[in-house]
Write a structure and sequence with these properties.
Mean pLDDT: 98
Strand content: 5-15%
Order of helices and strands: HHEHEEHEHHHEHHEHEHEHEH
Largest sheet: 7 strands, parallel
Pfam families: URO-D
GO molecular function, one term: uroporphyrinogen decarboxylase activity
Number of helices: 13
Number of strands: 9
CATH topology: TIM Barrel
Protein name: Uroporphyrinogen decarboxylase (URO-D) domain-containing protein
Strand order of the largest sheet: 1-4-5-6-7-8-9
Helix content: 40-55%
Radius of gyration: 19 Å
Domain Uroporphyrinogen decarboxylase (URO-D): 26-325
Low-confidence stretches: none
Structural class: alpha/beta
Distance between the termini: 16 Å
Length: 326
């Protein structure tokens, strides 16, 4: 099977020739340059031949055009940090301007994606990375977003309206650039951060508005729920084909999740404790356990989140060998 057939067979509940697999990593600082991001993305995919390419722009691209200052500070996973926020007072949510996604940092991400899409020629599913509006709001305001959510909710919702509109425009431009869908990352759907009622008001409606705008325009979307104690039952109803979360470090595990989400679960690997630090034999055992938990049905082997930069090649190779063996 080719990459598409493998995923589509899994999505339909069938048995592909092997379990699909995809791993992804950041390319810190180089991801600020269109040419370098394209080169790294294609080199990564040509080396490993994953079944899906998760495009890897900097995680702060969505706030820089609004004036956030960011830096790569040496994080083990290659993530970039916001070092100066934009929103420092609740009244500022109303002043967020409607960005032109054909310019600035937003435009750079889709320009890079366009080159990658052309080089891949449609042979491998390509997902642009996009962040939920509430996730972007937190990056714009830092932790004061929680204060505004509870003390100035109407003001925050004005900001979420603008962020959602810009995100939709960016997504539509990404489709034109060649994206087959999106890796939709929510870093706020965690009970450690919000109550379910708070996410129902400030998260879910804006998330679903984006998916509604993409209906009929994409082939595959993957939802990524970041962090511990995620709101899995709330998110399981999202209109996506794939669901990714830190299944090795927070509930639910794959076995339980397969009873709640009936499309493709993406996970099975602890990217830090196992893929970074363990032996290839341990990595292979974790792949086998993931297959056992799901009976190999509607599963894509993947990390709970981005791979550490220092992940050894032999452990990536062990993942690929394991899906072939099992």
């Amino acid at each position: 099977m080719d990459h598409w057939q493998r995923i589509e067979t899994s999505l339909a509940g069938g048995k592909p020739d092997r379990i699909p697999v995809s791993l992804w990593k950041h390319f810190p600082d180089d991801d600020r340059d269109v040419g370098m991001l394209v080169e790294h993305t294609l080199t990564w995919q040509r080396k490993w031949q994953f079944d899906l390419v998760k495009f890897m722009p900097s995680g702060t691209y969505g706030v820089e055009d609004w004036g956030a200052e960011t830096a790569y500070e040496g994080a083990w996973n290659g993530a970039r940090s916001v070092v100066k926020t934009v929103v420092r007072d609740a009244d500022q949510w109303a002043t967020l301007r409607r960005l032109d996604v054909t310019k600035g940092c937003y435009a750079q991400q889709n320009e890079a994606l366009r080159h990658v899409a052309k080089a891949l020629g449609g042979r491998t599913p390509l997902l642009q990375t996009v962040f939920s509006p509430l996730t972007t709001a937190r990056k714009l305001a830092g932790d004061r977003v929680f204060t505004d959510l509870r003390c100035s909710p109407d003001a925050l919702e004005l900001g979420l309206r603008t962020i959602t509109d810009v995100t939709i425009e960016f997504c539509l431009a990404a489709v034109e650039a060649g994206a087959h869908g999106f890796f939709f990352a929510s870093q706020m759907a965690s009970s450690r951060l919000l109550s379910a009622a708070e996410y129902e008001r400030f998260g879910r409606p804006y998330d679903l508005e984006i998916f509604d705008a993409l209906q009929g325009k994409v082939r595959l979307n993957m939802l990524h729920a970041h962090g511990d104690d995620i709101m899995f039952p709330l998110l399981a109803g999202y209109p996506v084909e794939m669901f990714n979360w830190h299944d090795r470090i927070t509930k639910p595990g794959l076995r339980q999740a397969s009873t709640q989400f009936h499309k493709i679960l993406v996970g099975g690997l602890n990217e830090h404790a196992t893929v970074l630090r363990a032996s290839p034999e341990h990595v292979a055992a974790e792949v086998r356990d993931a297959i056992d938990q799901t009976n190999g049905e509607r599963l894509m082997i993947g990390p709970g989140c981005v791979l550490p930069l220092a992940t050894p090649d032999e452990n990536i190779r062990a993942v690929l060998c394991a899906v072939e063996a099992f």
